[in-house]
Every structure is written in structure tokens, then in C-alpha cells.
Amino acid sequence: MEYFQFLIIIFFSPLVNGVIKKLKAYMQGRKGPGVLQTYYDLMRLFKKDMVVSNVTSWIFKATPYIVFVATITAALIVPVVTVRSAYGMMGDVIALIYIFALARFFMALAGLDAGTAFGGEGSSREMTVAILVEPMMMLALFTAAIAAGSTNISSIASMRVGMYSPSHLLALAAFMVAIVAETGRVPVDNPDTHLELTMIHEGMILEYSGRYLALMEWAHYVKQMVLFTLAVDIFLPFGIARASDTSGLALSLGVYVAKMFGMAFLMAVVESTRAKVRFFQLPSILGGAFVLASLSLVTYIMMGK
Amino acid sequence: MDVASIFSIGILCFVFGAVASQLPLSKVRNFSYLFPLIGALLFLSAGGRLLLGPVFTGTIIPVSSIFSFAFTGDALSGFFVVLISLITIAVSLYSIGFTRGIKNAGSMGFFYNVLILSMYGVVLSANIFIFLVSWETMAVSSYFLVVHERNEETARAGLFTVAMTHLGTAFIIGLFLVLSHYTGSMEFASMRQAAANLPQGIRTLVFIFAVIGFGTKAGIIPLHTWIPRAYPVAPSNITPLMSAVMIKTAVYGFLRIVLDVLGPGPEWWGMAVIAIGAVSAVLGILYAIMENDLKVFLAYSSVENVGIMLLGIGASMVFRSSGLLVLSGFALAAALYHAINHALFKGLLFLGAGSVVSATRTRNMEKLGGLLKLMPYTGFFFLLGALAITALPPLNGFVSEWLTYQSLLLGFKSTSVVAKIVLPLGGAALALTGAIVAAGFVKTFGTTFLGKARSEHAASVKESSFWMVLGMAFLALLCIVFGVFPQIPIALLGPAVFTITGSYLELHQQGILMTPGTAASLSTTALAAAMVLIFVAAIVFVRLYGGRRKTVYADSWDCGIPGLTPRMQYTATAFTKPLRIIYKRIYLPSRDLKVSYLIKPFFVKSIRYGGEITPFFERYVYEPVTRSIHALAERVKLLQSGSLQLYLGYILITLIVLLIFGT
Question: What is the pTM of this model?
Fold first, then answer.
């Protein structure tokens, strides 16, 4: 099972996004599209012709594949239903974040490749947000890693140290802010808009169509679910199976589904109750989260829990 | 052949190279780069022997008794010999193509050989004397290379370089005087034995002198200011040597004096080195990203990478002072790994930038764009270098940064509470640095190689010559190999770490990197394999599921109003605007907007915009110092009026004073 659990992320990540959209629709008093709509969209996009800008180079065509490959490689590392994952030994939390950085690097390059203002704007903002988020996210993960004695995600998940200790709660709070920023959600970015002045992620992929767009979107869903899974593995690792017996796995799967639903619900609540903030107000939000992450580290070192 | 003979023949190769550059035949000119190529291959094999074998001490040029035992090489020297050799091979290949039709090729070829030979001299010297002679030869030859293109810009940069280098050298001479006075020896080997018993104050003095002296050469902040001036104006085949290799001789000097000769020190030494490293890394890259000059950007990025190496070295020193030798070796391995990686990818990036500059005749990225289609090889290799320096898996930069992260995180095993907090915060600084590096290289590669050409020059360039591409290809290949197969560089640096900490380290098991005493592990080999497999699977899936679909080529999205021009693209300046706003306390930006109107305020005739950031250290540290030196010189001028009679009068007065008080 441990070798195939990444397939859960690949195939159910569009569903998670569909659920978030549905929950958001309910909270906003709409009916919203069905939870399977994301699948239909992907299937349709894969079968469409493509329009490609004649300014672009090979970077533009390679990027969707590189982004897709990188996010799936990241999915190989995280434990989903059992603590041992396919690539648990091959990469750790730091590798995971840098694999996402690989995807982001190419996405930002593709944004500049078509030679338009929108793409460049999206790239510039995406890289700026990353500068604000990455140190904070790393520091939050460091606290958990130091408490567990290593950066190996499987071993952090199986140690279950200090799950509800003050330092972990602070780190979890910072990490949740990081997830909101990394998945391009309100208040950092708005996934539902193509308004030129506000878009970040959508600006970078504006020129994409057909299968390229499908790969980019799918990769985005996978990244979102990997981050959700990482959060529950590291900060809420209760219920995850330690061995591969059937009953344990079934229980673990049930707990995992509940956790994912919880994360989706949380995202929907955040998106429905917050307004998108101006880009230059982001440093104060993300800087606040950085302070939380630093406090969490200091708390752990000084108090030992 | 024994090591001594290989070294001797290698040295002869560089001498031949220097001689060949002075011969009046143009055909011979290539030999001034072919000889160093052979010499570097010989030194590479000798360096490999130093890593394997016993410490080499011996006669290389049996001229006099000073020279006869002046050279020695342990594994640490061997590691740096390998590093210098790899870059020399690539740069020599590149130079064969690059120097076609260049002015003053003779002097360039001569100092090229002298510079490389003096760098070998630094890492192989056995005593103070040879070290200083090599160090100064290196400084002088690099000066002549910086001013190779004779104009005002290079002259100023050259003068500044010489001034800063000598500031550093003064401190290095100072530390050697102190060390040899108190240990009673000029040889590194015997200094090492005596250094442990020195009084603590003297040891600290030597440490501080080493930080300033070698730090100036390496470019730690605030002693970095000469680097972004000298690198960009040096010829494009010299900058990689200065950035990729010459910086490393300073790292070598620091390791040799502080970690090897002085040995373990108090914990605050390591903490200070970590603090300097973190500041240099973060500020270095923050200044880099604001630069739209390709080479200045890369020069500042060297400052940042020295900072990353110092994070590893500092962590190693902290662990060593608490007696955690295995962890100390691990952190030192991270620093050395990053040193050789930085040599590879920064060498590659500077070669690529050199190709761009010699093809387009401009260093300003705002005038470039769309070069990837016109210079496909240069663009591809530059991209590989950019991915490697951004520490993206599975390339080499990622491996060394991962090791650095792990060494900083291992701080929790230290006994001191301060170390437990400072080291992970160093990790956060590294994460911040990494994110800014990514933004910087997206900007640089994006505006230089992607989009549309922003000037006519950039629209009509040709790919570089075969030899130049070959030089880049060599380094690009090494960047991949050193990333995907980390056991190879670890085999190079393992013995070097052992000579300093005296404990063997198990860095990897069958190519999977391990951390000492924790469960964290990493296999870039497996990650790369997975990426290749998933890539193939993705292509097959898309083709099978989506079928063959048409691709229509059209203009970029223009909101329905045709006529996008290259000027409407996002510029490099615009790309970094958010950072100028967010970090305005650091940049202290100023803007200058001049609008002239036909009819105020509705019809604008023209707008002029200028913006700049405040070069903090230049304005608030260097300028006051320069001003006070000038003021002092003005005062001294009163005494020194140029009148002979007055000078004779001084002599007379001095004589009388001496006669009165001398008796």
C-alpha cells in the first residue's frame, strides 16, 4: 500500500477542489457546480486544440510537463494513509518544498515567455509572495522537525510528538497561513477571477489552453492536496496507520477522508469570510505568520514542548 | 609518476602558456589556453592523489632552500586543487573561442596563466612566505585582468580592487606576524602544533584578522563593495575565474588558518561566522536582485553564496567547540560541497553571461530578450546554471543547500540554548535567501532569454562559437552529475573534512544521503529517476487520452487591441518593484519623476522616470572613510608643499632636535 498511496492524491485531488468550491457556494448562498465538475473540466481540456503564442520558446511547452512531474514527485514523498510512503527515504520536508519551488520557477518563467504584461505581473507577484511565505513555512516545519528529531516526514508522522503542545499549535497556525498563500486563495490571491489587477496564479498561466492548461490545473490540485496532507501528517498525525493490515488501513483511510474534508471546510470558511487584501498588505499578514513561526521555535527550545 | 613530478610538469605547462602568449605569432595564441588546459588536467590528477594519499611535502622547483620544502598538500589542499582544475579546464576551453579577435590578447594570455598558477600556489603553500607571494601575485595579476579593457570604468574598478585587496592583505600579514611571533614558526604544520597553547586573546585576535583579511577577498558584507565593481568589467573569460575560484582561495585560507591551524575555538566564533554568513547571504541577494546588469547581478550573487558557505562553516565551528566532531564534519562537508558547487554553477553562469555580452554588446538586461531562440545552447546551459544555483532538485546546488539546512537543524543537538535557537534561525535566513535567489534568476533568465527582444542588437545575435559552448557544456554536465550522483563530490570532500575534524563521516549509503543520528535522508538519484519516469508516463498519458490535437500559433493575448510591442513586456525593473516597496527600509529607494505638459494636467507631453536604490554601505560607510582620508591628506599637504628649501629646512630642524635630545 505504501507504494501506491500517492495515487490517492493524484486521482482525488480534483475532488478536493470540487468540494471546496461546493462548500464555498453553499456558504455564499449559491448552489454551485457539482463536486465532479473539476474532473469534467480536466477531461474536456485534455481533448481540446491548443492556441500557443508565437512569441514563446520551448520553455512554454515544457513547463506544464515539468510542473506536473514535479508536483507528482512531491506526492510520492508524503505519507497518506500509512506512515511509510513510497519516497519517504528519498526526500524529506525540505526536498518537498524545493520540488514545489522547481514547479514555481518554471511557471514564473512561462509567465514571462509570452512577452505580455499580464504574465510578467503574475510571475513577479508569485515570486514576491514566495519570498514572504517560504522562510515562514520552513521555520514552522523546522519546529516540528526539531521536536521529532528529523526532517523525515514519515518519522515525524509516526512519532506523534507534542501534537497539541503550544509550540506545535503556533507552528500549525503559521503553516495554515502558508497553505492559503501557496494554494493561491483569498486573502492572498483569488482563484475565481481573471481580473488583471489582482490575479497572481491565473496571470502566469493566462496564455495556456488545452492539454497544457489541463496539466497546470491538475498539478495545482495535486499541490493543494499534498500541502493539506503534509499539514495533517506533521501537525495532526492521529489515526494514520503504522502497519499495512487491512482494518488499520480502513480506519486510517476514514480518518484521512475526514481530515481532508476538514481542511476543505476550513479553506471554504477562510475564503468566504475574508476579503482579498491589497497586494502590499500581504507583508503584514505573512510577516505576522513569520512571527508566529519564530515564537513557536523559541517556545519549543525554551519550554521543551 | 609521483605527485612532485606531476606538479612540476603542470607548472611548466602554465609557464609555457605564459610564454606562448608573448610570441608574436597569432597561431600560437591558442597555446596560451591549450597549455593551461593540459596543466589543469595534470593538477586534477595530482589533486586526486592528494585526496587519496599521504600528505605530500616536497620539492617542486629545487631553486633554493626557501623553495625546496615550501609546497605541501594534504587532502584539504587536494580538494581545492581539484576545484581550481575543473574550472580552469572549462574556462580554458571557453577562452580559445572567446579570445578570437580580442585586443591585447598577449597580456590577457600572460596574466591568465599567472593568475591560475598563483591560485594553485595559495592552496599548496607550506609556509607564510610562499602563501603571501602567491596571494599577492594573484591580486596583481587579477588587477591587470580587470583593467584589460582600458577605460575609465575599468581604471576606477581596478584601483578600488587593489585598495580593498590590500586592506585584506594587511590583515592577513598581521595575522601571520602574530602567529609566527607566538608560535615561533613560519610553517603551517608547526604552527598548528603550537597554536593550541596560545593565550586566548591572541587566538581571538588571529580569528578576527582572518575574518577581515580573508573576508575581504571572499566578499563578506560589508567588505564586498569591490566585487560588484571588479567582476563586471573584467573580460568574460576572467570573471568566472575570479568569482568561481579566487573567492574559494579565500575560503581555503580561512579554513586553513581558523579551522586547521587554530583548531576549536569558543562557541561565539562559530556564532559570529553564522551571523556574518546570514547577513551576507540575505543582503547579498537582496542587492543582487535589484541589478539589471547581468554581471553585477551574478557578482552580488557570489556574495550571497559565500554567505551560504559561511553558514555551513559557522555551524561546523559551533559543533566543534562543543566537541560534537561528527556533526562538525557534517556541517563542514556541507560548506565544502557548496564551495565546489558554487564554482561549477557560477562559472557556468558567468561564461553564459559572457557569451550574451559578447554577442549583444550590452550587459543591461532591459535591452535584451528572446535570446533563447537565437542562442539555444547558451540559453539552455544558462538555464541549467540558474536551476542549479536556485538549489532546485535534483541539481547540485540543492544537495549542498539541503546539507546546509540539515547542519543548521542539527543545532538542536548542541548543548547551548543560544546555539539551539541561532542555528535554526540561520536556516530561516537560508530559506529567505533561497526564495529571493529564485525570484532573481526568474527575472534574469526571463528578461534576457524569454519574451521579445528589447533592442535591435538583441534581435540579431548569433550563437557562440563551438569552443565557448563546449566550455559551458562541461560545467553544465558537472552540475547535473554532482547533483544526481552526490557520492562523487562526497568522495572528493570526505578526506578534506577528515584532515580538519579527524573523524570520518558516513555521508551516504549507496548514494542516499544520510544525516548523522537522525532519520532524515535524501536521494537525488531516486528523485531524478522518478522525475524521468513520471515525465515519460505523463507524455504517454496525454497522447493516449487526449489524442493528436492541433496547435494554432497566434499572437499573445492583447485584450483585443492588436499591436503588442516589446516595450509593453514586463521589465526587469518592474519585476522587482514589489520588493523595492516591501523592503524599502533596506533599499531606501528614491524616484525622480519629471512630467512636462502640453496643457496641465490633462495632456502630457513627456514623462521621464528615474529610480535608484541607496547603496547603503558605499554611502554611509565607505564615503565617510574616503572623505576623512582625503581631509587628512589635505592637512598633510601643508607639510608637503613641494618646495625644496622647506624640505631642507625640515631636515635641519630634525637634525637639531636629534642633536639636542639624542645625547
Answer: 0.94
